[in-house]
Amino acid sequence: MSFPYKIRNPRYCYTPGSKQRFRVSRSKIDLFHECPRCFYLDQRHGVARTSFPSFSLNNAVDLLLKKEFDKHRKAGTWHPMLKEHGLKLKPFDHEKMDEWRDAMRHGVQYDVPDTLLTVRGGIDDIWVDAEGVLYVADYKATAKENNSDVTLDSEWQKMYKRQVEIYQWLLRKNGFTVSDTAYFYYVNGQMSEAGFGGALKFSVKIIPYVGNDDWVESTIHELYECLNSEEIPDSGIDCEYCGYVDAVGAVLDSKNEGGTKKSKKKKATELF
What we know:
By secondary structure, the chain is of the alpha/beta class. The chain has two domains: 56-222, no CATH class; 239-272, no CATH class.
């Protein structure tokens, strides 16, 4: 079953001159970082990138890990896996934890001064040390032959690093003392088992990452300037979505030259 592409309702897009605050999610900041043009078309005109089904297995892992850590959060106890890794950290118990995890409706929020933007991001977890310093924790799931193959070294994983840096920035803006070190709690599906047997076994690897959120605030102000501009910005370097649109446009232009059959629909480049 297919679903026709639909442009988002304009009332959910940014309108220059509006006095209403506009909420920008962590993922949209990352989109702007990756490709200003895709961000602009999405947030100003409601033309989002084509979607794909969510990874239900990953979502199930996230949910189960949250339940597992919540048991220790309520009891104030040390999670055995953190103990095994020598991390003297406990799940942070805060009344807003459920709200901070709700990326769609709430998340950790901050109203950015001199703008009408409210930045928000839904966290997976927060751990805390004996001095009250917070550590951003992010759950990830993968499947590698060996745990040693589970790293943060791939080029595409830079988005993961930006993700936790935005969370660190948001928590600091909400008045918390936050460590530069974040942790990626990776569960690795074991493919060396003799068979499935109705159960998938995982090993755990906790990867520390020292973040730097210096880029976040300046990027948000650039993003705000982009939203208020009437000019469509350039695409990001190597943006495959823009590359696809440009390639389609080139083919359509070549077919429409010299009095050949005209398209009854406007080209994508003529819509904005």
